[in-house]
C-alpha cells in the first residue's frame, strides 16, 4: 500500500492537467503527497466518470479527493465507496439536472470553495451541501472557474493536506 495520495477530478470542459489541477498538484507534491489526475475527456455523463474513478486501484493509506465542477460532483459521490480522508471541492456541480443523488459519507475533513458569480452552478448549491455537513465553505468574489482565486484556493488546499498529516 502506498502512502498519501491526492486524486483529482477535472471539470466537464477542462482536462486532467488544467491550470487549477497543475497548481494544486504542485502544492500536494511539495507537501509529500503523490498525485493522480485521471483523464475523463470524452465522458460527458457524470455517472460514467464516477464509475471510472471507482474502478481505480485503492492503494493509498491516506486518500484525498479533489474535484472541480463535474469533477467535484464525481469526487463527492465517490466518498461512500472510496472512504477518503479528505475532500476538496471547487464549484461542485451538485444538485443540478443530470447530476442525481446526495453524496454520502463525506469525510469530516471536507472543504468547499465556490464563486458568488458562478453562472453554471448556483452558490446556493454549495451552501446546501456545506450546511448539511457543517463543513467549511468559502464563497469568493469569482466565477465558476475560480481563476482569480488560485492563491486562496492553494492556501486552503495546503491547510487541508497538512491537517491530514
From TrEMBL:
GO terms for molecular function: hydrolase activity. Keywords: Hydrolase. Pfam families: UPF0227 (PF05728). It comes from the Bacteria. The keyword Hydrolase applies. The keyword Hydrolase applies. This is YqiA/YcfP family alpha/beta fold hydrolase. It comes from Spectribacter acetivorans. The lineage of its organism: Bacteria, Pseudomonadati, Pseudomonadota, Gammaproteobacteria, Salinisphaerales.
